[in-house]
Every structure is written in structure tokens, then in C-alpha cells.
Design goal:
By secondary structure, this protein is an alpha/beta fold. It has two domains: about 10-180, NAD(P)-binding Rossmann-like Domain (Rossmann fold); about 185-290, 6-phosphogluconate dehydrogenase C-terminal fold, CATH 1.10.3660. It contains twelve helices and eight strands. It has helices at about 20-30, 45-55, 65-70, 80-90, 105-115, 160-175, 185-210, 215-220, 225-230, 235-245, 245-270, 275-290, and strands at about 10-15, 35-40, 60, 70-75, 100, 125-130, 150-155, 175-180. Strands 3-2-1-4-5-6-7-8 form an eight-stranded mixed sheet, with helices on both faces.
């Protein structure tokens, strides 16, 4: 692997999908002068116009024109759309350009990138900022979204060391804490701590919303319900894609969760207060230890 001079700034950056993540990257790059020009590509012209009006991007364009001029392209779309985006970029890709993504799954994204980019896979670096939110779209973008947030990088053997270092420094310049791991480890971890919680949040919200007395339940719901279901307001399209993209790991975590819930159910049915309290205590201690 060839090493080159390291810098985190880029002349032209193209963002595909200028929503919460993409828009926040754009405005942060512009505010910190890490890009001379930020281009925006997306499905919704209305959203792109909001992004431009709010200063998240400088120019609205398309995939072909973006790929011809961009030194860095950031793919911020639901993971199932990655193939289409890369296919649109590939024929026009500059030889020294870097492509990164921000998807919540990595094994599937990397496989797609290898299939589309072929020998030019060294230009693709898989990333995942842990900085989402329930709101989405350009209007949800925040300049400080990545401050003290984790960003996972899953470098490939084919990547140039200098490119990986440059992207790592870019995330750090945006305020993030960067961690590197394999794509397999990434998907295993985030099935448990991100993908499963979203699934459960959607499920609880659906259960209450479908109840015949849903209106009364929502009126009297307190902080616990609000906290638990906050992420159920996230993008349904994105989380449908993630659920299928990380299917095997998510199903394994879901099976483990259902076993614990079944044990709790049996404890309540059998009046086994000792076992139920023991389970609660282990969970409570673990939460307190994790919080530090």
C-alpha cells in the first residue's frame, strides 16, 4: 500500500443524500473550510433546495456531474440503494477520488462496492457514524452532529493507507471519535446495540397504536414510553433496508431477546418473584456499570 502526504481537506465534496447525516456533514465541512465546494445529489429536489438554502451544500447536481469533479463522494442513502448510486458514479469516477458511505451495515455494502467497483475498490472506504436521530431530511441537519460521537471505519486491505488516514482525520476534524474494526465485527455488534433496539421500539409503538384504547394510552404515556419509542420515529425505509441487510445477525439477537422475554413471562405467570427480581437486578447493575 502506498502512503502519501496526509490532509483532511478536499477541493470538491459530493454528498449523495442530503438528509440528517449528509446535510450535517456538508454544513460542518463548509463551516470548518474542509471543502472548497460541496455538491448535493438526491431524489427530492425540494429537499435539495432546502439544503442549499440552509447552507448545507453549494450546488445541486446529479451523479454523473458529481463524479466527474468530486475528490470525495459521501454516500448517505439507505443501504439498499448503494448499488444504484455506485453504478451511477463508477463510469465517471476520477482516478484519485475517494468514496465513503455512512450506512449502518457494512458486510453487504462492501460486497456491493466490490462487485460494482472491481479493481477500483481501493477507492471505497466503509464508514458508519453513530450519530443518527429520529428526525430526517435536510431540515434536521446540525453543524455539531458528530461532536464527541463515534464513527466506525472498516478499512479494506486494498485501501491506500494515506486515504484511510485522510478520512480518519476528516471525521476527527468534524469532532468524532474514530474506531476501526472488521465489517463482520461491526455488523455483529450493531445488530445488538442499534438494529435490535430500533426493531423493539417500532414493535412497542405498533402494539400501543393498534390497541382499541390507543388514544387514552398515548394521553397518559410518560417519560419511559417516550424514551423507549423515540427511535420509532426514524426513517422506516432506512430501517427496513438495515433489517434485511443485517438479517442473520439481527435474527440471532432477536432470538436471544425473545428467550429472555419468555423467561420473564414465565416468571410472572408462575409468581416467581425471586427469579424476576434477579433478572431485573442483573439488567440494572449492567446498565449502571455501562453508564460508569
Amino acid at each position: 500500500m502506498v502512503d502519501q502526504a496526509q490532509t483532511s481537506s478536499f477541493q470538491t465534496v459530493g454528498i449523495v443524500g442530503v438528509g440528517l447525516i449528509g446535510g450535517s456533514i456538508g454544513i460542518a465541512l463548509k463551516q470548518q473550510q474542509l471543502a472548497q465546494q460541496v455538491l448535493g445529489v438526491g431524489r427530492s429536489l425540494t429537499n435539495l433546495e432546502i439544503a442549499k438554502s440552509n447552507g448545507l451544500i453549494d450546488v445541486i447536481t446529479d451523479l454523473e456531474q458529481m463524479a466527474k469533479v468530486a475528490d470525495l463522494m459521501i454516500v448517505c442513502v439507505p443501504v439498499a440503494q448503494t448499488r444504484t448510486v455506485l453504478q451511477g458514479i463508477f463510469p465517471h469516477l476520477k482516478k484519485d477520488a475517494i468514496i465513503i458511505d455512512v450506512g449502518s451495515t457494512k458486510m453487504d455494502v462492501i460486497q456491493v462496492a466490490k462487485e460494482v467497483l472491481g479493481e477500483r475498490i481501493h477507492q471505497f472506504i466503509a464508514c458508519h457514524p453513530i450519530a443518527g436521530g429520529a428526525r430526517h431530511g435536510a431540515s434536521a441537519a446540525r453543524i455539531d452532529l458528530f461532536h464527541n460521537k463515534q464513527v466506525m471505519m472498516c478499512p479494506l486491505f486494498e485501501n491506500l493507507v494515506s486515504d484511510v488516514d485522510r478520512i480518519e482525520q476528516l471525521w476527527k476534524d468534524l469532532g468524532a471519535r474514530v474506531y476501526k474494526m472488521s465489517a463482520l465485527e461491526h455488523d455483529h455488534i450493531f445488530a445488538a446495540v442499534s438494529h435490535l433496539p430500533h426493531l423493539l421500539s417500532y414493535a412497542l409503538m405498533l402494539q400501543v397504536a393498534n390497541a382499541p384504547d390507543a388514544d387514552k394510552k398515548f394521553v397518559h404515556a410518560g417519560a419511559g414510553f417516550r424514551d423507549f419509542t423515540r427511535i420509532a420515529a426514524s426513517s422506516p425505509e432506512m430501517w427496513t433496508d438495515i433489517s434485511f441487510a443485517n438479517r442473520d445477525a439481527l435474527l440471532k439477537e432477536l432470538d436471544g431477546y425473545l428467550l429472555i422475554v419468555e423467561q420473564m413471562k414465565k416468571s410472572i405467570q408462575n409468581g416467581d418473584a425471586e427469579l424476576l427480581q434477579k433478572m431485573f437486578q442483573i439488567a440494572s447493575d449492567s446498565r449502571k456499570d455501562w453508564q460508569g
